[in-house]
Specification:
By secondary structure, the chain is mainly beta. It has two domains: 158 residues, Jelly Rolls (Sandwich), CATH 2.60.120; 326 residues, Methylamine Dehydrogenase, Chain H (7 Propeller), CATH 2.130.10. 2% of the residues lie in helices and 49% in strands. The chain starts with a strand and ends with a strand.
Length: 499
């Protein structure tokens, strides 16, 4: 009997003969060196419904925790304040209809809100008074994204290579407070602040500016700091700590996900994820956001047109082949894109907004199902195992590679958290399924179920008898258990046949 260890998250290579390991709604966590396994896999948080405007079933376009701690959101065209008791109060309405993400920022006095249209909006923090921004100078003509640095709020001038700054501590404008991205003539996609610097992400190349304290315009290009990549999706950039993440494109190609940490630009996507993105007809509508939970700092990128979402775990970021997993919602059509499309941390809670029906949810790590609409939905979890190409030699009794010979699987035992899941509505214990492929992961057989034990049955052992013969097995487990169901690894009893 040999242990079959698992490493990292999802990795479905361009050819399944290389790797065929899905990881859906499971996130890996590194264990100490004295643990029996290198990684343990835990179910993603459940969605616990906090609030919804029943009369406004539109996408949640943005969530924002202001500098004074108050919460705000945009659902469809409506702008709301959010109370600590999760009550929505309608405070204003956007001029233009839309579904794209919005951007908030504040200077401690008022919030500036933009939605990609020619309009901008102000919310006075002390009173929640909402108004359309009026710029008598004609400098502000709309923006995709706003941000804050050193008492100034900055924005991009859509369709140009320019960005602008408000006056200090004020949502007011000066026609001289505009500058151009100059190191390469491509348009500016969005500006974003990180590490007390302005990163101007262009379509093909990007550059970094800083507060030089100039009298006419405060900011200047940082000499020698240059990024040889642009941005292929204007809503994909997001920051966490001193790191910026985004979906890139440049003069050589596109569909890599990059990280900017200080002045170091590095690729954090891997070949498997990049192959998945190459199969998508549209990636320019990708939406990125970050959140931190349980010591994991995640960058989540949602591809609405493709119906997929992938999460990068910075805790595993030194090895991008292990750092990604997928999240899904168990909808009526099977595995669908997850409900979240924006996130914030407000009132001590990680919250996300629904892409369709205006619901704001808590990401609840102790909730093992989703509250979507007016129903509870199970969370489907799937994890694939690596190719099995070795076993015990049936003549020598020693482990060795099969080298193209047949392998006979006598037994598969799952190292799984048991005896803690509640009984189902019929009073039966929860179950986990196993299926396997005999053609290197190209096709799989029927799912075979095994019990994970009634509550308190901690000695339960999910196990499956003979899986037959093949030269290369791939196993995959899955479940929709409404309780703790962590996965460690498995044991297999495999023999190499010499004929």
């Amino acid at each position: 009997m040999a242990r079959l260890d698992l490493y990292g998250g999802s990795y479905e290579a361009r050819s399944v003969i290389a790797n065929a390991q899905r990881c859906v709604n499971y996130f890996p966590e590194v264990n100490r060196k004295d643990s029996p396994v290198p990684f343990t896999y835990y179910q993603r948080p459940g969605l616990r419904k906090l609030v919804r405007d029943a009369a406004n079933r539109a996408p949640v376009r943005g969530l924002y925790r202001a500098s004074n701690g108050n919460g705000y959101c945009v659902i469809g065209q409506k702008v709301y304040s959010i109370s600590p008791g999760w009550v929505l109060t309608h405070i204003g309405t956007l001029v233009a209809a839309g579904t794209t993400p919005v951007s908030f920022i504040d200077n401690g006095i008022e919030i500036w809100l933009v939605d990609g249209s020619t309009s901008g909006y102000s919310i006075i923090l002390a009173t929640n008074v909402f108004s359309v921004v009026v710029d008598a100078t004609g400098t502000f003509t709309g923006a995709t994204r706003v941000d804050y640095i050193d008492t100034f709020m900055i924005w991009n001038v859509p369709g140009t290579n320019q960005f602008g700054s408000t006056l200090s501590n004020s949502l007011s404008f000066n026609a001289l407070y505009v500058a151009a991205k100059t190191a390469f003539p491509d348009p500016l996609v969005v500006p974003i602040i990180n590490r007390h610097e302005i990163i101007l992400l262009g379509q093909l190349k990007s550059e970094i500016w800083y507060n030089a304290g100039n009298a006419q315009f405060p900011f200047a290009l940082l000499p020698g700091a240059y990024i040889e990549h642009g941005c292929g999706a204007p809503y994909s950039p997001a920051t966490a700590d001193i790191e910026l993440f985004w979906l890139s494109q440049d003069l050589q190609g596109d569909r890599m996900i990059l990280s900017q940490k200080g002045y170091d630009t590095r690729r954090i996507s891997n070949h498997a994820l990049e192959w998945a993105m190459m199969q998508m007809a549209i990636v320019s509508d990708a939406i990125g956001f970050t959140f931190q939970q349980g010591g994991h700092v995640y960058y989540e990128i949602v591809f609405p047109s493709a119906g997929q979402a992938w999460l990068y775990d910075a805790a595993l970021g030194e090895e991008p082949t292990m750092a990604w997993h997928q999240r899904c919602w168990g909808g009526p059509n099977g595995l669908e894109r997850p409900r979240e499309r924006c996130a914030a941390f407000m009132y001590g809670t990680n919250v996300v907004g629904d892409y369709a029906d205006g619901t704001i949810y808590a990401l609840d790590i102790s909730r093992y199902y989703d509250e979507v609409g007016d129903a509870e939905q199970n969370i489907p979890c799937v994890k694939g195992f690596p190719h099995i190409v070795q076993g015990m030699n049936n003549t020598t009794g020693r482990p060795e590679l099969a080298d193209g010979r047949n392998i006979q699987i006598h037994q598969f035992l799952l190292d799984f958290q048991v005896g803690e899941a509640p009984l189902d509505a019929a009073g039966n214990p929860a179950e986990v399924w196993l299926r396997w492929s005999r053609d290197k992961g190209k096709t799989f057989g029927t799912e075979v179920l095994q019990s994970v034990g009634a509550p308190g049955e901690y000695m339960t052992q999910p196990q499956w008898a003979t899986a037959g013969l093949a030269r290369d097995f791939v196993f995959e487990i899955g479940h929709s258990i409404r309780g703790p169901a962590a996965l460690n690894s498995a044991w297999i009893d495999a023999t190499i046949l010499n004929n």
